[in-house]
Amino acid sequence: MVFFKSKQNSKDVAKQRLKNIIANEKNNMTTEKLDIIKSEILHSVEDYFTVDRQSSEVYIAEENKEAAIVIILPIAKDNV
User: Fold this and answer.
1) In whole angstroms, what is the distance from residue 5 CA to residue 66 CA?
2) pLDDT at position 1, please?
3) Number of structural domains, the chain?
4) Structural contact between residues 71 and 38, judged by C-beta atoms closer than 8 angstroms
């Protein structure tokens, strides 16, 4: 599991975003649903940690015909 992202070039970032969009569409997951999931999870986690909302991400990733909701919630350093 990777906790910190390394620098990626724009081509790789764009490719990953396109894969995520396609996976979202294949799983009938709208942007609105993902936003609701993100909001609810953020509220739950913020009961325990200070979360960097601007850097948080929620998306569906698909690999080997299996889908997963990926949630990235960077927490403030003072919580670690």
Assistant:
1) 23
2) 42
3) 1
4) yes
